[in-house]
Amino acid sequence: MSDNVIVALSGGVGGAKLVLGLSRVLPPDELLVIANTGDDFEHLGLNISPDLDTVMYTLAGVANPDTGWGRRDESWAFMDALAGMGGETWFKLGDRDLATHVERTRRLRAGETLTQITTDFCRRLSVGARLLPMTDDAVRTRVRIDNGWIDFQDYFVRRQCQPEIREVEFAGVAQARANPGFLAALSAASLRGVVICPSNPFISVEPILAVPGVREALAACSAPIIAVSPVIGGRAVKGPTAKMMRELGLAASAPAVARRYGDLIDGFILDEADAADAGEIRPLVTIAPTLMTNLVEREALARVTLDAIAAIRLQGSRQRAGA
Hints:
Helix content: 25-40%
Order of helices and strands: EHEEEHHHHEEEHEHEHHEEEHHEEH
Number of strands: 14
Strand content: 15-25%
Structural class: alpha/beta
Strand order of the largest sheet: 5-2-1-9-10-13-14
Radius of gyration: 19 Å
Shape: globular
Number of helices: 12
Largest sheet: 7 strands, parallel
């Protein structure tokens, strides 16, 4: 890889928007994306990696522009036939998307790692940036609601985020091994900075941080770490972030997100709508438009993020003051 690498930690749709922006303002060999795999699950006998695939499809230019997930120009013959046979249809798998899951499952069962498969998929889809899963081991996000623990996709898709959440856990994470390519990038002298994309802190970013060795590697790296707020004006741009924060006893606000990351981060990108909250955040704050509704805005936020990293690097040391 390049001697000037940016590592981006990303969940699905929200994070993928900034990842796309970064991919368009950086040379391909200067971007390494680490995708959350806590959302991964087995369904209809297939291994499905929702966040990983969303980032991959987005970088390949084949993502569904209407939903942000799945593939462009999708058809649904499989789901229609499955419904006719009385099968489970709560998790939609388009015909083009289905090919990804079938081939991934076959290759996993043949002994390949998720990293090997993802790297090959990206090559075939002409993805320039390097994309890695956070781990090749099984980590499964689960949430506790009033009547017990359920898998994340059950909560997120089948139940449409309606139950109140009491607790979040990452089953299997204690035994998981961080992706070697991820750890190598964090320890390399070529590391320019780390970007925590505007993904849900609880279910997209914290599964990555919970993998043994990751927090320690981030704390030890010499490059600045910048987080981009996923909350604007007390509301999540995408998904249940604000709802989850309130249910877990936190304020649904950008400062609460910054405090959640604590002294792990050196800088925080805050939306203009929340400029009045800048005084509540102790790392270096950059105020900028963070709502990414089009490609121009994604590229603009990517440049703002890179400028924030450069500003901290000019100071000569990381500013791990907390929030």
